[in-house]
Amino acid sequence: MATQDMISPGFADPVFQSQAAFRALLAALSEPGMLQGVAADIAPPEGLAAATATALLALADYETPVWLPESLRDGAAAAWLRFHCGVALVDEPARAAFAVLDGAAGEPKLSDFNPGTDQFPDRSTTVIAQVADLEGGAALNLTGPGIPGARSIAPRGLRPGFTDELRENGALYPLGVDVVLTHGDRLIGLPRSTRIEEAR
After folding, report:
1. This prediction's pTM
2. Topology of domain 12-198, per CATH?
């Protein structure tokens, strides 16, 4: 089958839908732990959740290198992103502006991505971790900017030690990566400023 035959449509209304997706992402990162829905009505390629695909459609372009797991680099997901976003795919996590992880996979670690620099902390990688579900897992307590008091989340399908990686990443603030958890058409933002502890 030719590559173009595998490429499903992107946004039907790119301006309106990309703005809506951007607002959802902004809300997710400004209100950490709050579930956000992205109803972009797209057919994502195999390997990408609808929320992941929508986020990349809204944010990625030819100036934002993307890292994908090896299982997605030569398939429909890579072709879809090249066609709709014009992105360059990179092999080294540290070179990526955006990255897509299988939340249950052992590698790469969050520390393998670009944490930004003292001069340009905003040039860090945004890591999108796809998980089995955003509810039903072990509870995590969140505190920090954008959270009145505390907030609890319970994503399911994160690798052992991922919470430790998030804590270590947060200790680098204002450096560090921002993390977005996705499943289906929903997402949760975990910016580097969020403090995360396992519930007792």
Report:
1. 0.94
2. Rossmann fold (3.40.50)
